[in-house]
Amino acid sequence: MNLAILLMDQTRADMLGAYGHKVVKTPNMDRLAMQGTRFDNAFCASSVCTPSRTSLFTGKMPSNHGVMCNSDKEGDKCDVPLEDENLISSLTDHTHLYIGKWHIGHKKLPSEYGYVGHDFDGYAYPGSGVYQGLAFDSNPLNGNRYQDWLIEKGFELPKVSDCTFGNNPNLQIQEFYGLLDAPVEASIPYFLVDEAIKHIQVCIDENKPFTLWMNFWGPHTPCIIPEPYYSMYKPEQVTLDESFYQPLQGKPEHYTNIAKMWGVWSLDEAKWKEIICKYWGYITLIDDAIGLLMDYLEQSNLYQEMFMVVSADHGDAMGAHRMIEKGEFMFDQTYKVPLIIKDPKSQAHGEVNHSLVYLHDVTATFADIGKGVIPDSFDGQSLLPLLRQQPYQERVGILAQQSGHFTPYPQRMWRTRDYKLVFNASGKSELYHITQDPKEMVNLIDNPQYASIKSVLLDEMYAEMKKYQDPLCTWFYRMKAVI
Known about the structure:
The chain is an alpha/beta fold. The protein contains 12 helices and 17 strands. Strands 5-4-8-1-10-11-2-12 form an 8-stranded mixed sheet. A hairpin with a 5-residue loop joins strand 16 (419-424) and strand 17. The protein starts with a strand and ends with a helix. The mean pLDDT is 96.
């Protein structure tokens, strides 16, 4: 059986049509969901790229694989040992294809782990240094296949215009959005699909099974997109989150500082709606690119029997609480990820599963498909029982581990179906009654009526932290009686 993971970057689950959004057009992901299972309680283990992606690759929690923040930051120099079990190690008879963004570990590249395809290092945004007029400069350091591809295809190097930044004068290095002056076919999502098809065709010609891991650089900002996507959505279609109008009440002051750092804290509604429109446009662009891949797989008689996963490494606040992107905050908008799986051996079609699952459960699932055995090093659970209506051990909760993004700010989250506890190691902690307050607006951490619930959640979180040898465990234990 051939397998594929299509991983978006920084995608807020509830802004996909497949998750009930009434405006954003995602017909191809919707179709996949109707042919499989949509998980509505899927979470990443950390809301920044490298820890989350490394968890997906290794099947481990961040504290177990050791990458606790983005690998391009000083002080985090971890790489996944080549001999360790990983996402593809149980699929020994497959050709392993890697396309797009990497951002795993520190220095090692996909080819060193046995992948064929792209060898982008780190974040390596391929438009940097290629798009004229783009400030964002996270250039690939190991060659730029995208630039070579543009030349091979006869496209001119695109220009970017109409760029918008936040209003912090000291952070004018990353656009929120911009107009790409190029045909849709020259955009990065279409480049990725074209490259994936090329490598899949080699596998077809050689009659070899394959695993495809295709990673988009979007809708992560900067949302650099061409027409018609740039103008596809209108501000009057945007309804801002309720929390936008009561931002960060009862939350740590650090959260407000993050919003100010991005230059979004004082933006007016009109500007916020424009930012969200471009984010939506990028989502639809990616969905259309996914549609091209699905069409190719169908034409090649591969689609029906293919195990396919669509997800994202983490979410994006995108206006919730007047915040953007991700970082040192643990709202569901940044931790709940889309997860859609089409399993050809499942009878589930259009199913919605409510189980609490991790993104890196996909890793255990691949091992289950490959050898029927989950490596002892993996922290995740196979999702095959849920997909195939077999007995499954439900989790009590989800632990998430955040060490910081722009600055050290250790946090831990314990998320059950009904409650969320956030331990802020150097700030006010948080407690939310999710079923009554899904927007996480009312912090109940000091509410005496929730003292007994808080006590239970603290004990559950501590047990889970000990289980994963969490480096924050000792400090949490000393603090939990006084939170």
